[in-house]
Amino acid sequence: MAEFWLISPPGNKDARFQLASPGPISIGREISCGIVLADRAVSRQHATLSWTPPTTQEPGSWRLEDLGSSGGTFVNGMCLSPGKALPLQHGDQIQIAPWNFDVIDQQSSINGARTIVMSGAKEQQQEGTQIERVTISAPATFAQNQLVLLLQSNEAIHKAKDESAVYEALVNAVSKSTRFENVAFVRSTGQGEAVDVLAQVGNIQDPSGKTRMSRTMLRQAREGAVVAKANATGGGIAMSLQGMDVRRAICIPVEFAGALFGFLYLDDSQQRDDAMLTETASVAGAVARMAAQSLGNQQRARMEQRLAMEKQLMFEGFMNSLILTIDAKDPYTRGHSERVAIYAKMLAEAANLGPEMMELAYRCGRVHDIGKINVPGDLLRKPSRLTAEEFAQITVHPDISYKILHPIPQMRDVLPGVLEHHEKWDGSGYPNKLVGEKISVLGRIIGIADCFDAMTSSRAYRPAREIGEVLVEIEKCLGKHFDPELGKVFLSIPVHKLTEHIVTASPAQAE
């Protein structure tokens, strides 16, 4: 199982919390919380973390949910809506003011980056060290050639299709516009002195592979751009940069709308005067702002996708539970909806109706009988012929299915098939006695798939019929019960593909 941590980044409050499954883990200032954040800005019960185990489709993940806190819970700069859980990923930044945490999955790597430990023993600040805060000038003060470079940089950054491409565009643009020898985009991992080097021009590693970036610069840069300068004798710069022939270094936070994406780091061996160093930091800072905006837009889009996916998973879980509830009412029809969905998808594929209709047919098949939740179980299980009154109760289930699903936006496009799967080509079906092509294509597809599964499955009132007999029956009913063209397509599906999904034992035999 993956090992997850919440770790405060350098320069923030020093805290590390390992997330132990299965949870839930409460977060707040109350002493009873699993993660106690002792600050008045934190609500007593602020948020909660819950573990969702892995499935064949999805890896396991921790889900963060705000509990209606007064100050809000932020992930990557986006405020979570109370009651809506968000699955966390390695590298996410959580803010519960004044606390900041990086989400660390020990088995993951952010965007394939190389994680590198900073060099040397504990960094010392010798006498004369000059790590200074620098004010970045507005682009309006730049020279014409710098503005041209900025426009070119902006174009390259906003053409980038993903984060990695933005990182590369950023370091290349800054290298070109500043002429510094070494430029890198790095991200602190929150694990001791390690950083992820996500892109670089030149090389910021020493011969042993350790980064020569100053830890002090990294910490101070969280509050704004900083520069480090060597004095005339080569001293005065952080000891972690000495011996590397580094005379000037700049570190700039790349951040947008409260989210810190990482740091832009530059250094070289050239002696530059203070005015030139400030000008270089301003140009690099302007490019960093462009990259931060692009990264922010990409991150917001991904966050919205994650929230939408979480909503979809919750919806699918609800629908699965509803389908299982219907299956539980009648052991003879257990699995019927899933099989109808499979046969319907096969038919749509064989008819060359395209991937969209294939997916639609499958989804419709799974929910076409939802309305049977309103039909008494003893009526569904009755072993003898239904009376006219009892049959009338059965025939309302398409209408009930329609009414249940109509308010759900994700189900709007399956409604025709749900309502019309018992309509017949000759107009003798129900509920609206539609004729021929007045029945939707989806309704005609589900109608064939539904009848095939019903005839090849055991029922309380009769045993299953042989597949060959069922296919002959379908052929007889072409142009009467079934769309003649779609029916012919269904009959063309290889028998072995259909047989794979036919239930071979009655519920009594299975038990």
State which percent range the strand residues make up.
15-25%
Radius of gyration: 32 Å
* Overall number of strands: 18
| Overall pLDDT metric | 82
Q: Span from first to last CA? A: 36 Å
Class derived from helix and strand content: alpha+beta
Shape verdict? elongated
Largest sheet, if any?
A: 7 strands, antiparallel
- Which blocks of ≥5 consecutive residues have pLDDT under 50? 109-129, 507-511
User: Helix content range of the residues, please?
Assistant: 25-40%
Describe the structure.
- This protein has about 500 residues and is α+β, with helices and mostly antiparallel strands.
- The protein contains 15 helices and 18 strands.
- A hairpin with a 5-residue loop joins β14 (about 180-190) and β15.
- About 40% of the residues are buried.
